[in-house]
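Lab notebook: predicted structure, single chain.

Context: the supervisor wants predicted structures on file for every construct in the current expression panel, including those that have not yet been purified. This is the next one on the list. No modifications to the sequence; it matches the entry in the shared construct table.
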Amino acid sequence: MNSRVTVQAGDRRSSAASPVRSDHVAATEAALAERYPDVPRALVHALVLDAYRSFADARIRDFLPLLVWRIVRDRLAAVRQDSEGA
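Prediction complete. Output recorded below exactly as produced.
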């Protein structure tokens, strides 16, 4: 199944939409939610979509799931570290 969702470019100047495979979004979100069970799933979802949006104009998309996973992992680690330090 090759379902796609449209992710609009967030704060980018381009108004073009880029298709992102919804199965990539779901798989990335699920893996991160499993790794960070203490973080609300809605936050994980929002961070994953935001990371995909940052690549809306990317020409090469082969490594987007890995790049998005790493970006969101780093953000979630920072959130966890901030909450433990507070």
